[in-house]
Amino acid sequence: MQAGFAMVETGFTRAKNAVNIMMKNLMDFSMGSLAFWAIGFGIMFGASSTGWFGTSGFFLSDFEVGGDPWVLAFWMFQVVFCATAATIVSGAMAERTKFSGYLIYSAVLSAIIYPVFGSWGWGSLFKGEGWLEGLGFIDFAGSTVVHSVGGWAALAGATVLGPRLGKYTKSGKIKPILGHNMPLAALGVFILWLGWFGFNPGSTTAANKDIAMIFVNTNLAAAAGAVLSMIISWVKFGKPEIGMSLNSALAGLVAITAPCASVTPLSAVIIGAAAGIIVVLAVLFFDKVKVDDPVGAISVHGVCGAWGTLAAGIFNIGGTSAKIIGVQLLGIGACFLWVFPAAFLMFKLIDKTVGLRVSAEEEMEGLDFAEHGGNAYPDFEVSSYGGVGTSMGPGSPSAAGEAVGQFKPVRQT
User: Fold this and answer.
1) Closest-CA residue to 63 (of 72, 54, 75, 55)
2) pLDDT tens, 151-204?
3) What is the full DSSP assignment across 378-400?
4) Which of 100, 190, 233, 285 could be disulfide-bonded to 241 (CB atoms 3.0-4.6 Å)?
């Protein structure tokens, strides 16, 4: 999954920031693993007398040498979910975030913010007992527990950071900043699509007959999102657009994550198709209110995660009711009311202390050089060339002389 997210984010952003994006994704998993091992796993799955958070199992103390290794396998599976929630935020904060400030965020989300909400919805998978799951909350593999947590933290981060230089004109006009490598972004989506077949079926935590239906539902939802989005872009722009279709495939995957084990294949198609529409509308909305999200992470994961969680109640194969839908809405609201304020406060504190945003000069130069002293493409140079395709419509070459951070070949001598 981490490889897929890294490819998607790199492809949708400019060449001058590719190394920075790879480093953030690497540290999301590396630092996140350590933080989740030391603190997060205990908060999320430790014994709890209140249903709000766990108080045991820190540093994997629930495992004894020679004892049942299941806890180790369970931890390994869950740390990937934790890293997924953390790395979602990277895309929304791309191209203008200080690496040192980002590292602090990644550790805090992995150790505290994600595990607290996770304990509410999934604590009973080990030793916990979350108050939300006790009400009957349905989120089989994490539309809200994983994806909306990442999405709402991404919204907080993008809000505190502000937009990239040149994204919005003084008159309020939206100025597209094109990604530099759509094939790389497409590769990332294919990797994620494949990874979701471990993400969703693996959440059974055991091999059983339910896995077959989960596989089918997961695939159909992604396919429906991608196809419907292609049709919409073809009608709207006159051409089938790659960026929109890629994000809509991801939106379908995110949306089916909560209900994948409890809906029919037909419902999965409807859920995925609806997600393909919702993500387009959400991206337009956030652009309109000037929340700059280079990869559409807030829309894909936050908004479509909420939709998928609601859909788990609406399309529940065992029947629906006002109570079921009410509990789903409660879970969606509880996630936002915990994650967004907590993440917003964290980002504000980071901004006031070590700093969250790079200088304007560093942003123009590119974070690869400014933060890491390197270059992802040593045989190329940053130029004013545009890219092709964005998350919202076909791209076009940038105006001459505009520093957009794309690249062109350098003649070797």
Assistant:
1) 72
2) 999 999 999 999 999 999 988 899 999 999 999 999 999 999 999 999 999 998
3) TTEEEES---S--SSS---PPPT
4) 233
407 forms beta bridges with: 382
407 sits in which H/E element: strand 406-409
Mean pLDDT, residues 338-361: 98
Q: What predicted TM-score, i.e. pTM, was given to this entire model?
A: 0.92
At 190, phi and psi to the nearest 5? -60, -40
- Over the range 23-49, which residues count as b (16 or more CB within 10 Å of their CB) and which as e? bbbebbbebbbebbbebbbbbbbbebe
pLDDT tens digit sequence for 280-299:
999 999 999 999 999 999 99
Confidence band for 387, pLDDT divided at 50, 70 and 90:
very low
In terms of residues, how long is the chain?
Answer: 413
- Amino acid at the residue 174: I
What is the Cα gyration radius of the chain? Answer: 21
C-alpha distance from residue 297 to each of 92, 138, 160, 282, 362 (Å): 6, 23, 16, 10, 24
What is the tens place of the pLDDT at every residue in 115-147? 999 999 999 999 888 999 999 999 999 999 999
Structure tokens at 144: 């809200």
Structure tokens, 146: 């994983």
Q: Which two tokens stand for residue 27?
A: 């540290």
Residue 97, helix vs strand vs coil: strand
